Amino acid sequence: MIITSLLDTDLYKFSMMQVVLHHFPAAQVEYRYKCRNPGINVGIYIDEIRAEIKALCKLRFTDAELAYLRGLRFIKSDFVDFLGLFHMPEKCITVTHSSVPGEIDITVKGPWLHTILFEIPVLAIVNEVYFRNECREPDWQEGRKRLQSKMHLVTDDPAMTAFRVAEYGTRRRFSKKWHEEVVTTMKAQMGPNFAGTSNVLLAMRHGVTPLGTMGHEYLQACQALGPRLRDSQVFALEVWAKEYRGDLGIALSDVYGMDAFLRDFDMYFCKLFDGARHDSGDPFVWGERLLAHYQANRADPRTKTLVFSDSLTIPRAIELAQRFAGRCKVSFGIGTNLTNDLGHEPLQIVMKMVRCNDQPVAKVSDAPEKTMCDDPAYLAYLRQVFQLPPV
């Protein structure tokens, strides 16, 4: 089986899940899968995908895995106790053929607390099933050559001693085997330049730092869970701060676009949170705007961390590091370009929350192609509420 451990997912799923347990245990949600690549025939492998998901739903956390989670400073004991009873409910996920030839529909629907962990392993399953059938003899040497060239851009440059890059590629990895090789190689050869991985299982197995805070679904759900839509971003950040008391202090900035984020990210949040994460739009413009915003709100940008994670490559990360050197702290999370760069076109697949408590929710990012919502009227209303330009 592709997924053999419930830890084979990204850390931010656990950090968000803990918030759900403590603050929104009754929330009901719906997620939908989408492939952005045209003409990809995944449908012929639907039976394999279903079999892998069936096996996923039989997994339980082991005592060793629970002990590892309990050792993370921000994970609370009652959450680990809950995970000791947890499994993924097979009744909450359906995989069917799409009306579009060759495509599939995946829907996850049920209690947020019990469905939040589906996204990452399901996407990893779709990727690996597809690539193990389409690329039966992968060119591993080509992948290693590409990985080495990326690492040498950092390790061969004495000016890169402060450069930190993390691996964020679980959901779009070519395979579990290649993912592990990427992490072990980076750990062995990059030394302190390797900040860690978002994958909790690999972090535990190889003694590296697990990384992650919040994802888009958290702020999306708060559109339905907060007191009113206009205050949903503020509500999400306040609940997060209440749960973690200053820990995990990287705010996600692109659920409503940068303009709306800066309107809500006032002096209180500027000083309370350690920094923010970029995930859509021009990263240089985003960084300059955020630093100016910190200065305007009397927060020293040099004490803040800017995390870049949108379709990054090592060369682009180096450019960003050079632009913001000495002006703030920077960190980089690279996903697909590390874990699915063997010479084949990666799948651009996502699974996004589309409803919470039977209300539509949406992400409206600075990259229009990343907008996902199944209710056009709600999307138009959301744009109006947050003063976003019409499409």
Description:
- This protein is α/β, with parallel strands linked by helices and 391 residues long.
- The protein has two domains: 11-136 and 346-385, nicotinate phosphoribosyltransferase (Alpha-Beta Barrel); 150-339, nicotinate phosphoribosyltransferase.
- The chain has helices at residues 11-23, 46-56, 63-70, 77-83, 112-115, 119-134, 140-155, 176-190, 200-206, 216-225, 232-244, 258-264, 267-272, 283-296, 314-324, 336-339, 376-385, and strands spanning 28-35, 93-97, 104-111, 165-167, 194-197, 250-252, 275-278, 305-308, 329-334, 349-356, 359-360.
- The strands form two sheets. A six-stranded parallel β-sheet has the order 5-4-9-8-7-6. Strands 2-3-1-10-11 form a five-stranded antiparallel β-sheet.
- Helix 2 runs antiparallel to helix 6 (119-134) and helix 7 (140-155) runs parallel beside helix 8 (176-190).
- It starts with 10 loop residues before the first helix and ends in a 6-residue tail after the last helix.
How would you describe the oligomerization state of the chains in this entry?
A: single chain
Q: Architecture of the largest domain, CATH level 2?
A: Alpha-Beta Barrel
CATH domain fold name of the largest domain = nicotinate phosphoribosyltransferase
Spatial order of the strands forming the largest sheet: 5-4-9-8-7-6
* Helical percentage: 40-55%
Query: What composes the largest sheet?
Result: 6 strands, parallel
Strand share of the residues? 5-15%
Terminal-residue CA separation: 43 Å
Write down the secondary-structure element order. HEHHHEEHHHEHEHHHEHHEHEHEHEEH
Shape: globular
Number of strands: 11
Which structural class best describes the helix and strand composition? alpha/beta
How many separate helices?
A: 17
Q: If you compute it from the alpha carbons, what radius of gyration comes out, rounded to the nearest whole angstrom?
A: 20 Å
Contiguous runs where pLDDT drops below 50 for at least 5 residues: none
Identify the CATH class of the largest domain.
Answer: Alpha Beta
Please indicate the count of domains.
2
Mean pLDDT, rounded to whole units? 96
CATH superfamily of the largest domain: nicotinate phosphoribosyltransferase
Function: Catalyzes the synthesis of beta-nicotinate D-ribonucleotide from nicotinate and 5-phospho-D-ribose 1-phosphate at the expense of ATP.
Pathway: Cofactor biosynthesis; NAD(+) biosynthesis; nicotinate D-ribonucleotide from nicotinate: step 1/1
Modified residues (Phosphohistidine): 216
Organism: Candidimonas nitroreducens
